Amino acid sequence: MKRRTFLIFSAASAAGALVDVTHKKGLPGKEMIRFIPETKLVPGVAVHRPGICTQCPAGCGLDVRVMEGHAEVVRNGQAGLLRMGLAKKLEGNPEHPVNLGKLCARGQAGLQVTYNPDRIGHPLKRVGPRGSGEYIEISWEAAIGELTDRLRPLASQVDSSGLVFLTQPLRGQRQVLIERFLSVFAGSAHVPFEFFDDAVLREANGLSFGHYQLPTYDLANSRYVVSLGADFLGTWNSPVAQSLAYGTMRQGRSGVRGRFVQVETRMTQTGANADEWLSANPGSEGNLALGLAHVLINEHLRSAESAASAGDLIEGWKDGLPQYSSEAVAWKTGVPPATIRRLARDLSAHQPAVVIVGGSPLAQTNGLFTALAVNALNALLGSANQPGGLQFSPYAAGFAAPAEPRKGVLSPNELAQQILTGRPSPVQALLVYGANPAFATPPGWQVKESLEKVPFIASFSNFVDETTEMADLLLPDHSYLESWLDHVPESGTNEVVIGVAPPAMEPLHNTRATPDVLIETAHRLGGRAAQALPWKNYEEMLRSTVLPLRHFPGSVAAGSDDDFWKKVQQQGGWWGTTTGQTSKSASRPASFSPVKEQQPEFDGSAKDFPFHFLPFASQQFYDGRNANLPWLQEMPDVLTTAMWGSWVEINLQTAQELQIEQGDLVEVASAHGVLQAPAVPSPGIAPDVIAMPVGQGHAQYGRYATGRGANPISILGPQRETNTGALAWASTRVRIRRVGKNGELCLFSTGPITWGEKQLKR
Amino acid sequence: MAHRWGMVIDLDRCTGCEACVVACHAENNIATVGEKQAAMGRAIHWIRVERHWEGEFPNVRVRFQPIPCQQCDDAPCEPVCPTYASYQNAQGLNAQIYNRCIGTRYCANACPYTGRYFNWFNPSWDKPLQLQLNPDVSIRESGVMEKCTFCFQRILAAEANAQAEKRQLRDGEFSPACVQSCPSEAMVFGDLDDPQSEVSRLSRSDRGVKLLGEVGTFPKVTYLTRES
Ligand code: SF4
Ligand code: SF4
Ligand code: SF4
Predict the structure, then answer these.
(1) Residue A503 lies in a domain
(2) ipTM exceeding cut-off 0.85 for this assembly
(3) Which residue in chain A has the smallest CA separation from B25?
């Protein structure tokens, strides 16, 4: 987008008013219209308010430090200066069972979402062509009016309304709200999407253990942990909860120190902490798991039956997995036979033990096979639903369970095809909330092209990103510190947890909470829509859902409903035990036969594309959503010290053979695209793997992210995990060549990255 | 009440997540300098995480080591300052008086831990990012050195609180920002003069080492080595 045009249009009323008033008074900057203070705060004295971190799906509880300050705000179309409570620091909520007062780096950086200079400050209507960034500012009255007008004809359709709601996966009442909103539109669809989706593991857990959800690992009680590719201390599942437990596993028990082995093709932040680091061929991790099981069964350390139904899912399990001898498995995985036998014996001897799988091993075409193999191994070890092993967090009955498997859930790929072909029915309108598939899907999925074809797109995003820039109507949400929040963590706790938090501060801009906008739109549509969303606002909806918890033993004791609701808000949620609590059960279909071993398939031939390409979750930006936060841009990647850009990781020896040096510009090409970035040769990556962090390379995401680095997703092949249809994002092959000298690598450490122990200077 | 503030960092717990790095930025109004300046070595991180690689593929190991100012008892940064901007306060902290500093950078030169950072220009924040600034911490201007303060503002606040309530400070009742956020609880902060405090107890651990202890700086940060 051309920023200049954007500014000209959007600044017309707000900034114009500021300048005039200031000039009249002849005082620079401060003497604008003063609004009456909204909160009574003592200058210099902090108050603490609960919140919920929305920087990743884990849902850690926040403790927001709020202090009095002066902010330029817009109220009723009028800009002015307001003395208000401002969030000054985010800490973890010490009471919240998931994170117990701790936050990760991305959680720490959250203030910069609210105070980001590139936030969309008011509703906008597109006037130029799509993607041109030409908007005019409109009022909320007009914006909601336009949305209602667009949706009204769709609501009256009898068979297919053509309405699609594209969101990030939602884990709370926003999910319920959106489903109820859509229930009024015949044949409408909710498409939840995020790049690092764990659908494969959920599916496998449903089949093996009857829980369609991510596991909670009781690492604090484990004595031996083997992780296959999972960056569980950095970006995967519930990293803060897992880091807390990891600290205890290492040094929190007297006389016991848990041992930790990581298997992966490129060393993650998590892998860097392992006592032993191993590399296995991409897509062979399931084989490795069954190789370990083979040793356990054949050396009579465990009996095959002890794995119960999780074992039955694997072909040959009952017969002791004859085809998985250590030698055969070594040949496929590249892990030496003696190592396989030793790992298996150690797992058996040091109980409780647990095997974790996540990330790239499951992002192969045979991901489900791998996950089922690891589940069977855990069952064999007796680690399922045991202390020191893996467990499943309970949910309260009646609460939106995260990630419930729904029939006919579309992926953005299918959505794009539906839009492009108009089959089974044309898509008339698309609503976008917190998802950015135009950035985070492979080019072969044609998401970007398909968006051009949708007659009407409305976005509720805080920022103009690659998807939102295609929207006709922008209805910006409050930031998460300005919103009513709720979140049901999928994992990281063994209690029922419902995170709930009122806004920690007043909104800075003329934004509006998306749930409230939907409620109002439904009321304007009237009839069935108004009945489906009967609440006055989202706060009322939350209150009515939370009140029934009062009668269960939990973290809040209260004499009345009002008292209960007040205390839940003060605490940042409710946690305890409920009767009728469920974890999402998905019983195995009766017809499910044991799965056969499945070989991974890669996109691109080994001859033309000799390297496996591994995009990985960035320590700073996760899937790219945090790339617009300067604190995280300037936070050095812990293994390379890279800041403010992308890099290409390549094995040290391989780089020498190709005469690639640190900082050289290299070109990485797949059958689907080409990108360039500086090289970082590293000892922690397999010779046949090229890796890149996901998160940079935004074409459109504010001043700190736009045009910075390269996006590895843009060269991925479109192939998917064969059983679940999830994107197999680790299965593309590439080639690499040196382009030239100056790749403009920005490192915090000026030395070579492989220092000896004694060299501590920066 | 005199205190001697110290810190223990358990390298067997530290995962290299860098929550401490961002927490310190957020708490202490540390400016980001942008790509161009960062590439010239001008980024400021009062605490950073170093890594030590060992071995060759596939037998590779890494050890992480977070490094804030070591708050040395015999601090090499202090005697070299011609204006006494760098000095040791009554609680044993190596403090920096910003408005006394004239930017010779002798102290940065002298620090064996490279824990001191220079402001090459006045910091600026794109509006409204300035609203994130912590009112308890002053902003440093061009030409001034800065460094980890052990979150001195938090120490003062906790002391004032205790005084108002007419009581002694309790061990663990407050923490610096990095310690508070650390997800694996690798960092512990407290009074080294109190033999009962957690930080004293851990400093006496068999695993305790001082970073470059042999140069005789007597740091008040103790590292607990990894057990493997
Ligand atoms: S893990 Fe980090 S980003 Fe995710 S919710 Fe927790 S603090 Fe936020
Ligand atoms: S926050 Fe803690 S675990 Fe993370 S890098 Fe810092 S010291 Fe290590
Ligand atoms: S003690 Fe405070 S100033 Fe020092 S590194 Fe930690 S957060 Fe930064």
Answers:
(1) no
(2) yes
(3) A631
